[in-house]
Design goal:
Blueprint (H helix, E strand, L loop, with lengths): L30 E2 L6 E13 L9 E6 L7 E5 L3 E8 L8 E3 L23 E7 L4 E6 L4 H6 L4 E6 L8 E10 L14 H5 L7 E4 L6 E4 L4 E8 L6 E5 L5 E5 L2 E6 L5 E4 L4 E7 L7 E6 L7 E8 L29 E9 L20 E3 L15 E3 L4 E8 L5 E5 L4 E6 L2 E2 L5 E2 L1 E4 L4 E7 L4 E7 L2 H5 L3 E6 L1
Parallel strand pairs: 1-4, 2-5, 4-9, 10-13, 12-20, 21-24, 23-32
Antiparallel strand pairs: 2-3, 5-7, 6-8, 8-9, 10-11, 13-18, 14-17, 14-19, 15-16, 15-18, 19-20, 21-22, 24-30, 25-29, 25-31, 26-27, 26-28, 26-30, 31-32
This protein binds copper (II) ion (CU).
Copper (II) ion binds next to loops.
Length: 473
């Protein structure tokens, strides 16, 4: 919140937020309605396509995406089933798919050279894994992430509870942030040094489900489970529903004590998700603004809730909303080993110096404990080796002046303290936002063997070295 967005574009933000057609309602995404079968099979073809991001009268946008849409199809499956995904690479460069937040076996994690060879153009790769945890997740490439995700390769993955809580509608909003030219083309300046060394590739066009939205139709008295997924390269969203009191019931797929977020703002850093109960307490025929107010100086209206003229029911229902905890191993704080993790570098952050086991690679601008790792690294030394089944506290110490949403693969962790003060929620997450000069303590059981990436999910920070391997074995 202390940092201002650096757009780095020729025109200001919101270039396309005001000028689009007033009829562009939030659209539902194509999905694969997967049943309760033991194994659900689906094919994702990564290829170029043309999609209407801004909408008429603006031109279509050339993107890279899955199955012709960005975001890609919503993959839905039941908790406890298996998912089998054939990924066909029809791009002109190598790719992989990472299943963000899912506790998959290491060889299904989609990290090039670390867990699998990259899928070269023309080749296919089959991912096949069990789904132990219900919740809201997503998938994206882990090769040349800034450009591949930034050009549109991302999709949501929903694992449904065996007995989902009662709601009127289960709605998905995939939030994205695009850097577009005036012709609605994706600006090609990926890897710009300013983005790498500052706040990442912030865009100028926010979308919901791949389109610049204007309104979302809702009925008074309705209860909506709203699943929010932030697939942006760098932007943190801070959603405020004016006059409404949405309750957060899950974070990064994991149930949390239902609560109204501080200041009524639902904060989603890059890669984070939130499941929200949105009770439609507004009046029929009214319009309610949904603001994105994370960067205070550049708050804007993301979309409007457009209340239908008739009520669904006299008042919002009081149905219980209980989400059952996922089967995550409970960390043992008494026996937990403690590790200090220093996040360093970036603009105004001073020089990074190699203190780790390997020399600083070329192009590194960020470091974790004095080491940097590039996405193209074919060899590495683990930052830490954790004994299988043991508990660990990481104190993430942000010595930089930028936000870092830090993501650990293969595990979920509890956020137990911020600046050494215990958190109220002790929320489970797979991506935690560490603010400038902040320390955040997380704890988890290293119960998934293998080599797991631990990196910043601002994809430009990751591209400039803010990545490491945690070995569990
Ligand atoms: Cu970062």
């Amino acid at each position: 919140m202390s940092q201002r967005p650096h757009n780095g574009t020729v025109f200001g933000r919101r270039a396309f937020l005001a000028g689009s057609a007033a009829t562009a309602a939030v659209t539902a995404l194509p999905g694969t309605a997967l049943g309760a079968e033991r194994t659900n099979s689906v094919t994702l073809t990564a290829a170029k396509a043309r999609v209407p991001i801004v909408g008429p009268p603006h031109p279509m946008t050339d993107v890279w995406c899955y199955n012709g849409t960005s975001p890609g199809p919503v993959l839905r499956a039941r908790q406890g089933s298996r998912l089998k995904v054939v990924v066909r690479n029809r791009l002109t460069e190598p790719t992989t798919v990472h299943w963000h937040g899912l506790r998959v076996p290491n060889n299904m994690d989609g990290v090039p050279y670390v867990t699998q060879p990259p899928i070269v153009p023309g080749q296919d790769f089959t991912y096949d894994f069990a789904l132990p945890d219900a919740g809201t997740y997503w998938y994206h490439p882990h090769v040349n992430g800034s450009e591949q995700v930034g050009r549109g390769l991302a999709g949501a993955l929903i694992v449904e509870e065996l007995s989902p809580p009662r709601v009127d509608r289960d709605v998905l909003w995939v939030l994205d942030d695009w850097r577009l030219t005036r012709r609605a083309a994706i600006a090609g300046n990926f890897g710009h040094p300013r983005d790498l060394s500052h706040a990442g590739r912030l865009g100028n066009t926010a979308t919901i489900n791949g389109r610049v939205p204007t309104r979302f139709t809702i009925r008074a008295g309705e209860r909506i489970r709203l699943r929010l997924v932030n697939v942006a390269n760098a932007r943190t969203f801070g959603l405020k529903f004016e006059g409404h009191a949405p309750k957060i019931v899950a974070l990064d797929g994991q149930p949390v004590s239902p609560h109204e977020p501080p200041g009524g703002m639902i904060v989603l850093a890059a890669a984070q998700r939130a499941d929200v109960i949105l009770d439609a307490t507004g009046e029929p025929g009214t319009r309610i603004r949904v603001l994105d107010a994370y960067y205070r100086r550049s708050a804007y209206k993301l979309v409007e809730l457009d209340y239908a003229k008739t009520r669904l029911r006299p008042a919002v229902p009081d149905w219980p909303f209980d989400l059952r905890a996922n089967p995550l191993a409970a960390p043992d704080l008494k026996s937990a080993q403690r590790h200090e993790i220093l996040l360093e570098g970036g603009a105004m952050g001073g020089r990074i110096t190699a203190r780790g086991a390997q020399p600083m690679p070329r192009g590194a601008m960020w470091a974790i404990n004095g080491s940097a790792m590039m996405e193209t690294a074919k060899s590495w030394k683990p930052l830490l080796t954790l004994k299988h089944g043991t508990s660990h506290v990481f104190r993430l110490n942000n010595r930089t002046v930028f936000d870092h949403p830090m993501h650990l693969h293969g595990h979920s962790f509890r956020v137990i303290a911020r600046n050494e003060r215990p958190t109220n929620l002790r929320e489970w997450r797979d991506t935690v936002l560490v603010r400038p000069r902040e320390t955040v303590d997380i704890v988890f059981v290293a119960d998934n063997p293998g080599d797991w990436m631990f990196h910043c999910h601002i994809l430009e920070h990751m591209a400039a070295g803010m990545m490491a391997v945690i070995h569990v074995g």
